[in-house]
Amino acid sequence: MRYATLVGFSAVLMWGLLAWLAKLSSGLPPFQMMAMGFFVGGLVGVASWLFRSGAHQVLWSQGWQVWVLNVGGLFGCHLVYFVAVRNGPVAEVSLISYTWPLLIVVFSSFAPGENLRGHHVAGVVLALLGAYVVISKGQLNAFSGGLTLGHLIAVPYAFMWAAFSVSIRRFGDIPSDIVAGFCLACAALAAVMHLLLETTIWPLDGQQWFAIIGLGVLPMGLAFYAWDYGMKRGDRIVLGAASYAAPLISTLVLLFAGVTAFHWSIALACLLIMGGAIIASKDMLFKKAT
């Protein structure tokens, strides 16, 4: 379980690159970017099949329920989040959206075999506070501009992603190779949305191509494979608490890339999120591996 949890956490690390890569690709229509990113992410899995005979057969052996849940979850969550950030302040929408790790902890606690304890609660609360600090830059009132449509849409997004992530475990016997098929299906859906709603703008330079490929290989590719594996076989409560590292990693990446300036809230958030993750993970960290 420890190994699977670490694999799942690698997805959080990759999602921390999302804001930077998205900024490098700015100027491209969102649905076009989603289509290209999911397509590259799908190709990552397809390429791995070349070295593992028979891995692709998982695509043809699953019922429609598996496809509806996973394609609907991946594409639906991205679509709802995209609508939310387009209709409200990005920082405030992000704060609401990042209640999904807390919801994962709550939802997981009701699953058979899960045991929510006091240190899990303490850890996720500390991590949630850290996410608030880094996104709000230490402002006590981060929602002073009034309620917008984006705020309202961010709420169902958080519930959707948490519910989707927890429900993955229902199909724990299905190899994560199938994620390649989910990504390609999401790419097709995003392409349809793009053709209906947007005008195609191809990347103009190497930086934008680098960003698109990077998005597809990491946050919209390998991250989904790792998350699928971690949620199926790892400690979901620990992964929920540790997921609050994503906004902090994102901020640190932007800081080192010169996109944003250092602020005291970054250091405080680092302590809160790391402390929360360690507290929530103490059972896993301080026992012998099994």
Annotate the secondary structure layout.
Elements: H1 2-15, H2 18-24, H3 30-49, H4 64-86, H5 90-97, H6 100-109, H7 118-136, H8 149-167, H9 179-197, H10 206-233, H11 236-242, H12 245-256, H13 264-280, H14 282-285
Helix pairs in contact: 1-10, 1-11, 1-12, 2-10, 3-9, 3-10, 4-5, 4-8, 4-9, 5-7, 5-8, 6-8, 6-11, 7-11, 7-12, 7-13, 11-13, 12-13
Q: How would you summarize this macromolecular structure in one to three sentences?
A:
By secondary structure, the protein is mainly alpha-helical. It has helices at 2-15, 18-24, 30-49, 64-86, 90-97, 100-109, 118-136, 149-167, 179-197, 206-233, 236-242, 245-256, 264-280, 282-285.
Write up this protein:
The protein is globular. Helix 5 (about 90-95) packs parallel to helix 8 and helix 6 packs antiparallel against helix 11 (about 235-240). With about 290 residues, the protein is mainly α. It has helices at about 1-15, 20-25, 30-50, 65-85, 90-95, 100-110, 120-135, 150-165, 180-195, 205-235, 235-240, 245-255, 265-280, 280-285. It has 14 helices and no strands.
- Average pLDDT: 89
> Could you give the order of the helices and strands?
HHHHHHHHHHHHHH
| Shape call | globular
The gyration radius over C-alpha positions equals 19 Å
Distance between the termini: 8 Å
Number of helices: 14
The helicity comes to over 70%
Count of DSSP strands? 0
Helix-and-strand structural type? mainly alpha
- Approximately what portion of the residues adopt beta-strand conformation? under 5%
Largest sheet: none
Q: Regions with pLDDT < 50 over 5+ consecutive residues?
A: none
